[in-house]
Amino acid sequence: MFNGLFIVLEGGDYAGKKIQSIHLAEHFLNLSEDNDILVTHEPTKRAKEIKRKLKEDESAYADAERMAELYVEDRVYHSINLIKPNLDKGAIVIGNRYFLSTLVYQSLQGVSLSKLVDMHLRPNILAPDLTILLDISPETGDQRSESRTEAPEKKFERKAFRDSVYQQYREVANSNLYRETFGWVEFVDGNKTQEEIFDQIRILTKPVYHSWVKHFS
User: Fold this and answer.
1) At what angle do helices 99-109 and 64-78 cross, to 10 degrees?
2) What is the SS3 assignment for 50?
3) Which residues does 67 contact at the CB level (< 8 Å), separation at least 6?
4) What is the mean pLDDT of the chain?
């Protein structure tokens, strides 16, 4: 068991993971100024090959196994060098994307879900205490994409693939293989306002947070 608390926010593009991770960090600081908090995301800054392929690859379905390998390699580095050291110190780590994202995107690319699960069964990849999926519809994704100022990544942000991602998140998170291996994923209706979404997140994190505080107080 970690000394710290590890919570991951998942979801497709425009689900609101970034802003909700910030809200959650602020919430934990409001609960106690003694809380040390790390907000992090994947892929990490060091994952230059992943980021190059996301920007330049024309096909969402190309290099599926290579993409899976790159994400797992980056995740091992992330876990060893950032997540685990902070958890060992008793910090709250809030992650924006983790292994559920790889299971979703690379299974859509054509890698079997069982192979992707097996790739993550290693001690260096830590399991979160709580995974929350911000579940949105393609229509919400379309509406939110209209306000984006920078150009979308070529590989995975084209509409047809993006729409498939939203459904794939639901199917993978609800699959017996995922649940039996990694546990349950809590769903949040991400189509609502930021305030309404965070109210759902706050409710879901409350028992996990208080259990952690009680255990380590």
Assistant:
1) 170
2) helix
3) 50, 53, 105, 106, 109
4) 94
